[in-house]
Amino acid sequence: MLISTRGRYALRVLVDLAEHSDGGYVPMKEIAQRQEISLKYLERILPVLTKNGIIEGLQGKTGGYRLVKAPEECRIGDVLRLTEGDLAPVACLACGAKPCKREKGCRTYPMWVEFQAMIDDFFDNRTIASLVRPQGEE
After folding, report:
1. Which residues of 96-133 are buried (b: 16+ CB within 10 A; e: fewer)?
2. Spatial distance between the Cα atoms of 70 and 47, rounded to a whole number of angstroms
3. In the chain, N or C terminus with fewer CB closer than 10 Å?
4. pLDDT of 78
5. For residue 6, is pLDDT > 60?
6. Right CATH number for 5-131 from 1.10.10.10, 3.10.129.10, 3.20.20.70, 1.20.1440.230?
7. Distance between CA atoms of 58 and 26, rounded to whole angstroms?
8. pLDDT of 76 over the 90 cut
9. How confident is the model at residue 85, as a pLDDT?
10. DSSP codes joined into one string, the chain
11. Mean pLDDT of the region 12-22
12. Up-side HSE of residue 60: CA atoms within 13 Å toward CB?
């Protein structure tokens, strides 16, 4: 499986914030209810997004979370790399992988490199804005 629950949920949270924040903070409880994600799971995802400057949080009665970047600036590829580590389809292309001794003669290596480029291109050319519903659409 290329994308885990963590990556999928992170994208859902960001889309939810883009659709419901209106510049203000959205309580975590509301996000959890709308997205049907447990608060406990959100508590594991939100710090990653906060630490990396995608969202910010505010504690207190009027607190919650909001996007720091505009939805048009939040590339899906960046979010998935934060939550998944990397998007390598095979171990030999993973970040920090030791060079494979078979790479030069490997018949499948060029195919995996091309597939990796397709994955990167697909996710890097889409933003959270591309997933947001137009106002009033359900």
Report:
1. eeeeeeeeeeeeebeebeeebeebeeebeeebbeebbe
2. 19
3. C
4. 96
5. yes
6. 1.10.10.10
7. 9
8. yes
9. 85
10. --S-HHHHHHHHHHHHHHHH-TTS-B-HHHHHHHHT--HHHHHHHHHHHHHTTSEEEE-STT-EEEESS-GGG-BHHHHHHHHHS---SSGGGSTTPPPPTTGGG-SSHHHHHHHHHHHHHHHHT-BGGGGSPPTT--
11. 93
12. 3
Residue range 119-134, pLDDT digits in tens: 999 999 999 999 997 6
Read off the tokens for 108.
């499948």
Beta bridge partners of 67: 55
Q: How far apart are CA 14 and CA 31, in angstroms?
A: 10
